[in-house]
Amino acid sequence: MAAPPAFSPSSAAATEPQDAGHAANQAPEPLKGLPADPNTAQQQVPASAAVPPAPAQVATPLDQLGDSPQWIDCPFCHRRTLTRVSKEGTSMQILAGILCCLFCVCLACVPCLAGWFEETIYVCTQCNKKVATRPVSGPIIVHGPQATVPSK
Fold first, then answer.
1. What are the boundaries of the region Disordered (predicted)?
2. Any alpha helices (H) in 2-146, and if so which ranges?
C-alpha cells in the first residue's frame, strides 16, 4: 500500500478555486490565534486555565441531616454516599384524618396532603439500609450496625 502524497502549500493553492481579487502565487494566510509551531502550544496555555481537581464531598454527621439528600459516611457499608430521604405517615396522621372527617368528609385527606405527623427516613443509596430517622417531634435517631455480643 503506497503512502499518500505529502502536503505542500503550493499543491493546496493549486486545488482551491481562485477569486478574481486574489493573485495565484499568494501564500495562504495562517490561522489567527494558533501557534506556528505545535510544540509551543503547551507553553502558551496559562496556568489559570488548567482544570482544578474535583473537590472531595464533605460528609454530614448523621445527627445533623436535613430534608434534602446529603453526603454521609454509611455506618453499615462504610462508603461515602448520598442519602435517600422519604417521609412516612404515622398513626397520628390517620387519627387526625378521622377527626377532620367528623367535621366534613372532604377534610379527611388534609393531614396526608399537608404532611402532618410524618417521620423523615434517611436511607443509604449503596446498601439500602436505614441510617437515621427523624420522628415528628424530637431529635434524629441514628441507626447503626448491631454490635454482636459473644456468648459466654
1. 1-68
2. 9-15, 91-103, 110-114
Q: Which residue has the higher pLDDT, 84 or 39?
A: 84
* pTM, full prediction: 0.58
> Amino acid letter at 78?
H
Residue 59: pLDDT over 90: no
Enter the DSSP assignment of 41: T
How many Cβ atoms from other residues are within 10 Å of residue 72's Cβ?
A: 23
First CA to last CA distance, the chain: 82
Whole-angstrom CA distances from 74 to 6, 63, 85 are 61, 13, 14
